[in-house]
Design a protein that fits this description.
With 476 residues, the chain is of the alpha/beta class. The protein has 15 helices and 21 strands. It folds into 2 domains: 54-282, no CATH class; 288-451, Rossmann fold.
């Protein structure tokens, strides 16, 4: 009798263990959760790995949708879901053709206007929030958070915009595509070429921090949930230094800091018309890197030699990027002008230079803004060069012309930064190869607030092309 009872108990225990194993097999790990091993990586790499999870789990549909206005854009983006995303652009004569030339969609759909005026105030904010939630098969902010918890998704950053800003369509796109809370900061914080005084700067810092806190996610330490700020609205590119009156610092480097200057997030910035800002967002999300121009005008000696580009070129080639490298003694004003005489077809442009807001040295002479090449396809640009981003909304400055010509991401200085403010190309590319996003890889992350402005989506990465699914697999 005791023997039979023992066998029964063993059978029950074995059944229980098998049931537990079957249950574990039936419920796999949450698909959008960062593996525990990734937590050992530096925080910028962790951020990039989180974006890679999205790339692996949400297919790109081989389609481009073109809309005529903002209201139709908000209607169109609500068709995104977890089975697939596709680019949506607000049509214009410049940026839309550039994107289409590069993306080469199997299907291009032009939607007619829904012929509705956008609501205002709280109703417009709610429309934007609901539109970004739809991409995650949610209906509003509350159900979106529940969906993220269900999937194991932890937002890598926060998107900050204004309901009154023309770039708000880009904000919705980046919140939806990157799985980020969308929050609103209203008020006047200057125009893109302006400099904020200390009072304005403090008001902006406080407003941004409160907006991030309102999401309920941890943000105060690097490597927690919120490690990026995507500012999608008009504001000034510079602010006055409190420690050194008269010195101008980059707003995108000053944001995401504690009062002692310690960083808790890295910032990127998009502003401008609905067509251009949405173009910048779509380029960041949907375009991959296949070609690069590396133009090195520095001598291969002293501190200049630390910024050589041979190593960077070799690194990019390991991910099958086709690299054109120009360096001393080939680098010259004549060589630059020959290169710039035709439209460039490079996804990534890294250049070393010296100069001012409206000129840049390219070897043995100074090129002017007029020597900046036209772009046939969208490009991300990293310019090691003083003053290039002092007035990024002025097309007659270096950064302004690159942006006007179609650059969707730009790294440059708002003032004289000194050479050490820039990351050497080799180090930058090493970071990119480990999955760190472009704007993070290009920044001195541990220094006090300084002068390097980062324009674009802070979560954009340099990566190999991804497979796409056919439009028939995900109808509109």
């Amino acid at each position: 009798m005791k023997k039979n009872l023992r066998f029964k108990l063993l059978a029950i225990a074995l059944f229980f263990c098998l049931s537990q194993q079957l249950t574990a097999c039936s419920f796999p790990a949450k698909p959008f959760q960062l593996p525990a091993s990734a937590k050992q990586e530096p925080w910028p790499v962790q951020t990039g790995l989180r974006i890679n999870i999205l790339r692996d789990n949400i297919p790109i549909v081989n389609r481009a949708v073109i809309v005529p206005d903002e209201a139709t854009f908000f209607a169109a983006i609500q068709k995104w879901n977890l089975k697939g995303h596709w680019p949506i652009l607000i049509e214009d004569n410049k940026y839309t053709p550039m994107f289409l030339q590069r993306f080469q969609a199997a299907e291009i759909v032009r939607l007619p206007s829904i012929k509705q005026q956008l609501p205002k105030s709280q109703k417009l904010q709610q429309l934007m929030l609901n539109a970004s939630a739809a991409a995650w098969n949610a209906t509003d902010t509350q159900t979106l958070k529940a969906k993220w918890t269900e999937l194991g998704w932890e937002p890598p950053g926060v998107v900050i915009t204004s309901e009154n800003d023309p770039a708000k369509t880009a904000a919705v796109a980046l919140a939806a595509a990157r799985g980020q809370p969308l929050v609103f900061v209203e008020g006047n914080f200057g125009k893109p070429n302006d400099t904020l005084n200390q009072q304005q700067w403090q008001t902006l810092q406080t407003a941004v921090k409160k907006a991030v806190e309102s999401t309920g996610y941890f943000y105060s330490q690097l490597g927690d949930a919120i490690d990026t700020l995507t500012i999608v609205r008009q504001l000034a590119v510079k602010y006055q230094s409190r420690e050194t009156p008269g010195e101008q610092l980059a707003v995108t480097d000053g944001l995401g800091r504690h009062p002692n200057g310690a960083r808790w997030a890295a910032a990127g910035w998009i502003y401008g018309s609905p067509a251009r800002s949405t173009y910048q967002a779509m380029c960041a999300v949907f375009l991959d890197s296949q070609t690069a121009m590396l133009y090195d005008s520095y001598p291969q000696e002293g501190n200049w030699g630390k910024y050589e580009m041979n190593s960077a070129a070799s690194g990019l080639k390991t991910i099958n990027v086709n690299v054109e490298l120009v360096q001393q003694p080939e680098a010259s004003l004549e060589k630059w002008r020959i290169l710039a005489s035709k439209e460039w077809e490079f996804d990534l442009i890294l250049m070393n230079s010296k100069g001012y807001p409206k000129s840049f040295q390219v070897g043995n002479g100074d090129a002017s803004v007029e020597d900046i090449p036209k772009l046939k396809i969208p490009a991300a640009v990293h310019a090691i060069h003083s003053w290039s981003a002092a007035a990024p909304d002025d097309k007659d400055t270096v950064a302004g012309r690159w942006l006007k010509n179609g650059a969707y991401a730009y790294v440059g200085s708002v003032s004289e930064p000194f050479l050490s403010a820039f990351i050497p190309p080799k180090v930058m590319v090493d970071r990119l190869l480990r999955s760190a996003p472009f704007l993070m890889a290009a920044r001195q992350l541990d220094s006090p607030p300084w002068k390097i402005a980062t324009i674009g989506d802070p979560l954009m990465s340099i990566a190999q092309p991804r497979p796409r699914i056919e439009p028939t697999q995900q109808p509109i």
